[in-house]
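The material for today's practical consists of a large collection of protein records. A record pairs a protein's sequence with a compact description of its fold. Instead of coordinates, the fold is spelled out as a row of discrete tokens. We will come back to this pairing of sequence and fold again and again. Here is such a record, shown just as it appears in the course material.
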Amino acid sequence: MNSIKAISADALAWLDAQRLPPSPSNYRLAYSYHDGEHPELVKAVRAIVDDGVRITQAETDTLHERWLGAVTTESAKRADEARTAAIRHQALGLAELAASATATTGEFGRELERSIPELAEEGSASMQELFARTLERTQRAERELAATTAQVQQLREKLEAVQGDAERDALTGLPNRRGIDAYLGADARREAAHVFAICDIDRFKSYNDRYGHAVGDRVLKTVAASLQETLADHFVGRWGGEEFIIIARTDVSDGVKLVEAAKTALGERHFKLRETDEPMGKITFSAGVVPLPVQAAEHEAAFAAADALLYQAKEAGRDRVFGG
């Protein structure tokens, strides 16, 4: 029997391949599908996906409602509340430190203002006392401000780490759909001509069916590493499932050549099954390459055009790159 960890990994990989978000209800359906404890649910899902058709969110919701019932969001709500409380606690601590530093410097300013007449009347003794108090206040303010700065830095680093994790695919280390969207949203990326390419590993399902999802995951990681290595000067992300995207600052003609070079480099790698040393054969992908419009509103049409070219490449025999 598969372990809970293995079933969880398979469920998440399946959701990714179906381009479904890992929401509580979707994850519960995927987990139930892979643990096999609901045969009728497994049969219903397979009736949809066995021919390579991706299951839709609407179909997922219908199956979940029928076989598993409404899932409670209470645990997700508690998790969100805990994260919010932790951030709020840190924010309050920073506010208190900043307020304390502000109060200290304000007190010093008021005391200095009050002491000015004394300087004129009492001479150097008052001056020395004032300097001592000034030094003490200044040192205290510096310590508190330094503590505030350190806290702010720690919070910034934590937030950057969370954001980085949210925008990066856990399996391959490449930017995920959120990271890709962030990259596409930067105006600097659209100052010059760019191309957008979608690459899909040929016959990827056969690797999972023949060798298991662990080997399929290794294939995905190897393809990702090969693309990163060959296209080091360009943006590479995981679009979802066995699909990767490339964004390069060039025109379509040169973009096709870039992707062809990446495909050739992948084809020159020799793959063996780690457990038995059995050769796995050449791993290939098909791709569609299109110009990336300057206007973000036109991106969806470009993605659809690249996807159409990709499937033309598949229908033409796979292991091909089509540009348009």
About this structure: Residues 70-77 have pLDDT under 50 and may be disordered. DSSP finds eleven helices and five strands in the chain. The first strand starts at residue 195 and ends at 201.
